[in-house]
Amino acid sequence: MIAFEQNSFQESAAGPVEFSDVEFLKSLKWEGTLPKKLVAAVANGDIEAFVAARQKNLAKVAGRIELPKGEKNRATFWLSGWSIQAFESSGRLNELANLLHRDPIARKSHKAVSNGLTSQKPLSKKGWLKSLKEWAATRPEDDCFSPIELLIVLEILLRTGERLSPRLWWRLWRGALTSSLQLHANLDSAGEEQSSEDRLVVVRGELPWLAGLVFSNVQGVDVLTQAGRDFLTQRLDDKTDTDGTPHADLLDHLTYWLASLTRSVVWANAFRTDVWDDGTAERFREFVRIAAAMCRADGRMAFGKDDSPPIVEILTQAVRVAGWKLKSPPVLFVECLNETLRKRRAEKLPTIKSKFKEQHAPTAQSDWAHLACLRNNWTPLADSLVLTHDTTFSRLCLNAFGRPVIQGDWSVDIRVNDRPVELQSTWSCTCWFSDADADYVELQQNLADGVRVERQVLLSRTGHFAVLSDSVSADENARVDYEAHLPLANGIDFAADQLTREVVLEQGMGTHGNPARSRVFPVALPQHRVDGTPGRFTVDDAGLTLKHAALGGLFVPLVFDWERRRFAAFVDWQALTVTEENRILTSHSAVGYRLRIGNQQLVIYRSLNKGEVPRSVLGLHTASETVIGRFEPTGDITPILQVES
């Protein structure tokens, strides 16, 4: 007899393949109260009657699958298709994925996956069913589906209703049941093989959970259901902070990870059960908010794989099943993003204005997760910056008006007295700040021989600019050589000014047919190329490279500005004199810079060691460690950011 008891599959391994369909049906054990028709069908080995009863039951379940607003009267797309690319390609998988893509009843064609498939027209209804029947008939000799095939087949069983003939439906149902048994029996040994987060959450979490729901009333199925629920809950707990912030090492996998968790909630809602307890549900809700905040205007995730599916498709489902209200910022953002992408496909990208008051900030920061998400608003064309610091070189994704400008490792090479300084494997976050003017994060490493490296990132909420800077502190008489590299995002064109050290970055066309441009200013270096300096600022296909050298310490900010009204504006910048009790300080102690772009002037001040008394720069008398502010026509400095010593 087949049951979901521990090791039961191994004990009856010779049975499932060799049994006839009638023998297989009669061999199953059931629990709970079953409808009389189902009891009779099992007892008599009546396959067609059994299929009709199960199809009717699952059709009711499928009707409860929550769809985005306005889509309830349309056929739905295949949710399992989100994860196809996360698994190793095979001929059988390609055939099945192609069937999803060419399903004539799908709401819209699912984008062809990167397994060599090309876009093809939908099949006819008869042609689609015939192809599915042929695919099912070529099942391997061991009668088992691969994990991703099993996920797709379970969804087909759940959502096809009466589209399939009883014989085809039964063939898939029997194969899925046998495969689920095999999967459960091999979960422990498959753990290492399925180590990638892209696959692990599906194989050990979602698949047991969904199989347990689809095969409810089969004796022992609660083992699968509980195993899936426990793994999903534990994984969410392990990979997110208490506020829902995902760990930095999850970002490369976040699209597929969110897809699996979202589907698991969709399945739970359809079967009128819960996958989370209340506390875990709230964590998932906040995780979805933060995932939305890290989404770019092209519908993809910061640091996401180029071949991963657009996360906006997943977020459209996730924001609702996570419990966000229809007028909440995350839901409205996803709706605006969908609208933007539709108009972009029509080569008409409008300026999307915020339709709501900001209630839930589109920002996040977690020391535990080694991640900070800075974002100026809840619109698709927002400015945003995602920074991770769980590796030696923190990673950065800077987006201007929703379009990536910088993406990758923010690497740095430091030498003190011509000896290389070895950085630590992680950074500690020493300051996080977010208000109506700006978001700001500061990282630090305290190294050998008293060397301290600090990394600062500021993103303006209103001014369309960002400041990225490093400071290095060492012994007062030590020579510090510094070199940093910032990789450009894909598709960026660049040009270095011939007279000054300004660099212009350009990526395609922005709103209203205008180029999306950013100007970059290395304000720690003299503006004009004719002025000598121990530093350099260059750009090439690999990215931006900034070099500098000084005695005792240095502070090297880069200012990125993408405000369209300032793109053609005159610019100048210069180093400022910093004094303490009428004594001029060197870069070992404190530095300041002024940058003027048109009628806006920015002042950046940094104290590398604490003074005995407040210090002065451009009329500002301050004891703060860092000040970034606007220099007003009145001669006053209006702080955007002040960090105390």
Task: Describe the structure in your own words.
It is a single chain. With 645 residues, the protein is α+β, with helices and mostly antiparallel strands. Helices cover 31% and strands 25% of the residues. Strands 8-9-10-11-18-15-14-13 form an eight-stranded antiparallel beta sheet, with no helix packed on it. Strand 14 and strand 15 form a beta hairpin. Helix 15 packs antiparallel against helix 16. The radius of gyration is 29 Å and the shape is elongated. The termini are far apart.
Mean pLDDT: 86
Overall strand count: 27
- How many helix segments? 16
Secondary structure class reads alpha+beta
Low-confidence stretches: 1-14, 70-76, 107-118, 345-357
For the largest beta-sheet, the strand count, sense and barrel status come to:
8 strands, antiparallel
Radius of gyration using CA atoms only: 29 Å
How far the N terminus sits from the C terminus, by CA atoms, comes to 72 Å
The spatial strand order of the largest sheet comes to: 8-9-10-11-18-15-14-13
The shape, in one word, is elongated
